[in-house]
Amino acid sequence: MESQAPTGSLSPLMSLTLVLILPLLSLSLLGRWKVPPPFPRDVPWPSGGDGLYARIRAFYRGWPSGRRNLSEGYRKYNLQGQPYIHATPSLRPQVILPVKDFEWMLQLPDSMLSVQEVMNESVGLAHLLTGRSATPEKIATIAINQHLTLGLDRIQQDLVNELHLSLDQVLGQDTDNWKSLLIFPAMEKVITQIATRVLLGLPLCRDEGYRRALVRCMHRFGAGMVVSAQLLPWFLQPILSIFFRIPLRSSFRELSSYTEPLITHWLARIEQEDRGVKSLDTSESLPYNLATTFIRVSRKFLDHGNLNGRELTNYINQISALPFGTLIPSASSMLFDLASHGHQLGLYQDLQREAVEALGCDAWWEDLGSFKKLRLIHSCIQETLRLNPIALHASNREVIHSDGLTLPTGQHLPRGTWVGASTMDVNLDERFYPNPMQYDPRRFLSERQPTESQKIDRLTTTSTFLSFGAGRHSW
């Protein structure tokens, strides 16, 4: 006689289903959900067609970069002065503006458009770094402005020393013989070492264990940003980002094992100074770096009683790990371009001559005016960024006004819509750049005459050079 399963018991299939679904439901409740608005009805789609299949095809055509959609829309609509919808795997409505409307957009106030809202979603800050608030970002902006802009003369010699040391370590000091070099790892070491010198100073900037931990953290954040924030639909991002958030938090804990003792010590020293108490440790002066500047600014904006070393460490670790993921590839691309074209264009000799004339003496390295004379080097950097922009669509902003935004062309965008410009297509537009596909390291020399040295740099303001964005919030 066959036995029967007790009434009320779950089948193996149902048990497995519950095991899979319950964690996802829990993650869904814990995730940050931001439902996007509907797509604007009067803005065209470059793929054409209004059917469901045509729209789905548009979202994943050219996956993962979406370059095909951007180029087609630019040729079909932007060149005619019209905006178009850029369909991406995130399924969020994004409108790409023509240059003339993009210039108009840059003049709009922050009460109409928000950069931070786009950053939260497009690079995964809202999902990968949960619990963030706007206050530390404001503090970081003030600290960076004070330290790197107003106080640049105080750290310039440190930067020069670290640059010389890191380049000697990577390139060697043999100037008579060529050597093979892996450019990306070399730039990774140089930039992270110099950046850490500015942020945390000696001796941590030369600690190879800390540098490797920093690089791992950057790589994990980069992977999480691309996959969870750009390649997944918006409704899956809060759920699946957990798989990137766990290793990223592990990396931040590893960074904290190096930085928290230092930051806690510096916080205690600064608190003593503010109370007028002299430190018993007279053998070591308090260093001047971005971390100590951040601590001082934080004490002005935050409640002193609630300020602690661990909280400050978390903020400072994020500052150290997140910004350099774009700088390293850009520096590597510049060296690739120089290595690929330098011989044919006679570029090496001209660059060396310019460097000797501007920085031939040690004392000239301490003069900020010396770096303004590096016009050819600056032009090479701009040309590389023109051909290798950091992002395919730049200066994205989110419409945050409750009434939405009406474009000069008449289309109305609901609140929550993203607007921006197609970086690569603008940078390769023959109307703005003759022979745009050609690498010309001297292309920007005529635009930087000595009489214009006091003007705002075209690199960060023009609507036809978008590699670092444009307007008040350019990178």
TrEMBL record:
Transmembrane segments: 12-31, 221-244
Keyword Metal-binding attributed: yes
Pfam assignment, any one: p450
GO biological process: secondary metabolic process
Gene3D superfamilies, sorted: Cytochrome P450 (1.10.630.10)
GO cellular component, one term: membrane
Entry GO MF terms: heme binding; iron ion binding; monooxygenase activity; oxidoreductase activity, acting on paired donors, with incorporation or reduction of molecular oxygen
Cofactors demanded by this protein: heme
Iron keyword on record: yes
Subcellular location: Membrane
Alphabetically ordered keywords of this record: Heme, Iron, Membrane, Metal-binding, Monooxygenase, Oxidoreductase, Transmembrane, Transmembrane helix
Similarity annotation: Belongs to the cytochrome P450 family.
Name of protein: Cytochrome P450
Taxonomic source organism: Aspergillus sydowii CBS 593.65
